[in-house]
TrEMBL record:
CDD domains: ALDH_F3-13-14_CALDH-like. GO terms for molecular function: aldehyde dehydrogenase (NAD+) activity. The lineage of its organism: unclassified sequences, metagenomes, ecological metagenomes. This is Unannotated protein. InterPro entries: Ald_DH/histidinol_DH (IPR016161), Ald_DH_C (IPR016163), Ald_DH_CS_GLU (IPR029510), Ald_DH_N (IPR016162), Aldehyde_DH_dom (IPR015590), Aldehyde_DH_NAD(P) (IPR012394).
Length: 466
């Protein structure tokens, strides 16, 4: 494995790295299932043996509580790796498919074929999970991989860059540290697939760079994920589940509830319930809770502090710039034209907007870009069905938040401006493969029906059987 941590102007070094990794792939080194299995087991071993190192790095970067860091970054990756190891042979097996009559006698199959060299660019909010899960899928699919951790979560990036070379195959798996300059140089190279997680602005840059080489991309972006709370909802449970999903990682989650559309008849009760949940989770002052994180950087702190002016703070609103702390905050009387409602919050601010019907919520959602996630709380099954079927989102959890991402049988990804492509479980392997179609015909017979001259009799048979 090669680790680059070099200043700007390192085109040759990056290009050489990609050339080296590509040569390894072309040699067939990454193709055997035994190699793939070994690398996945080594990644698992790295996480298990260095759990404390990663937990500490996450604490330094994001103030992540120990339990939260383990569950969302370490255990999540381990679960994905276990699933890949268990199903590695099955997911890489040739698939037999039927053949139409016109091809007979023949057999048809689809062969899973690795794409080649995959670039994985990860964000800072879940810096272990969002780098290693797609990388593991690419490895399980038989590819070579170049990984780019986020420089914003610098402690975690350094830990990954130090530890990955000690555990994994250096000839086929590389890490490039650095910032914009290094990412720009990487994007100038030709890859066979680029997997990017982050915001739409950079997503457009990635897609533009990929287009120069006709490289396929997976873009896991974000957007403003709404919560619809119907008057039939169990408000006490809704309040707790919304609060948990919102303030996990201090709101710095791509599928965190971004705003609530709640029936006016239960709005006050919901806000009170959320306030109670905050106290139950984090105590009287979340600043002193060992279960609540911090904002990742001064820049993001300043941005979030500015967004608070988009309405009236009714819960929280406390800040401490020195600690990059913003308390769990609920905002009412929201200005729908403010930045609070026009950009993804990605922090611990939760706007609450009153509505008079589910149809009003649906109209609002559909008048905005498709979100990465949508949440609906209701006991009325007709309301649930109406909201789910009348809106478009990357994924949905009913009567909960975030949980659809935990099921490896449910592909995770965005739609429209919230992204393209999906992964996790089998989808996280298949996205890095080409299912090569192969049809093999027998030479034991060779009916003349298929060949010219095309007589009236042949034309009649064609119309009957084709």
């Amino acid at each position: 494995m090669t680790v680059l941590d070099t200043p700007a102007g390192t085109t040759t070094s990056v290009a050489s790295l990609v050339t080296q990794v590509r040569a390894t792939f072309r040699s067939g080194h990454t193709a055997p299932l035994a190699w793939r299995r070994q690398q996945l087991e080594q990644m698992k071993k790295m996480l298990e043996e260095n759990e404390e190192r990663f937990i500490e790095a996450l604490r330094v970067d994001l103030g992540k509580p120990t339990v939260e860091g383990f569950v969302t970054d370490i255990a999540f990756v381990l679960g994905e790796i276990e699933s890949m190891l268990k199903n590695l042979k099955k997911w890489n097996k040739t698939e037999r498919v039927s053949s139409p009559i016109v091809t007979q006698p023949s057999k048809s199959r689809r062969i899973p074929q690795p794409l080649g060299v995959v670039l994985v660019i990860a964000p800072w909010n879940y810096p272990v999970q969002l780098l290693l899960v797609p990388a593991a899928g690419a490895i399980a699919a038989g590819n070579a991989v170049v990984m780019k951790p986020s420089e914003v979560s610098g402690a975690t990036s350094a830990a990954l860059a130090e530890l990955l070379p000690k555990y994994m195959d250096q000839s086929a798996i590389s890490v490039v540290e650095g910032g914009v300059a290094e990412t720009t140089e990487l994007l100038a190279q030709q890859f066979d697939h680029i997997f990017y997680t982050g915001n739409g602005t950079v997503g457009r840059i990635v897609m533009t760079a990929a287009a120069k080489h006709l490289t396929p991309v997976t873009l896991e972006l974000g957007g403003k994920s709404p919560v619809v709370v119907d008057k039939s909802a169990n408000i006490a449970i809704a309040a707790r589940r919304i609060a948990w999903g919102k303030w996990l990682n201090a709101g710095q989650t791509c599928i965190a509830p971004d705003y609530i559309l709640v029936d006016n008849s239960v709005k006050a009760k919901l806000i009170d319930g959320i306030a109670d949940a905050i106290k139950d989770f984090y105590g009287a002052d979340a600043k002193y809770s060992d279960s609540y994180g911090r904002i990742v950087s001064d820049r993001h702190f300043t941005r979030l502090n500015t967004l608070m002016s988009g309405g009236n703070v009714v819960v929280g609103g406390d800040v401490d710039a020195a600690q990059r702390y913003i308390s769990p905050t609920v905002i009412d009387n929201v200005d729908l034209e403010s930045q609070l409602m026009s950009e993804e919050i990605f922090g611990p601010l939760l706007p609450v907007i009153g509505i008079d019907s589910a149809d009003e919520a649906i109209t609002y959602i559909n008048n905005h870009p498709h979100p990465l996630a949508l949440y609906v709380f209701a006991e009325n099954k007709n309301v649930i069905s109406h909201v789910v079927n009348s809106t478009t989102a990357g994924g949905v959890t009913v009567n909960g938040t975030l949980m659809h991402i935990t099921n490896p049988h449910l592909p995770f990804g965005g739609v429209g401006e919230s992204g393209m492509g999906a992964y996790h479980g089998k989808s996280g392997v298949r996205i890095f493969q080409h299912m090569k179609p192969v049809l093999t015909r027998s030479t034991k017979i060779d009916p003349s029906l298929a060949y010219p001259p095309y007589t009236a009799r042949k034309a009649k048979l064609f119309r009957k059987f084709l």
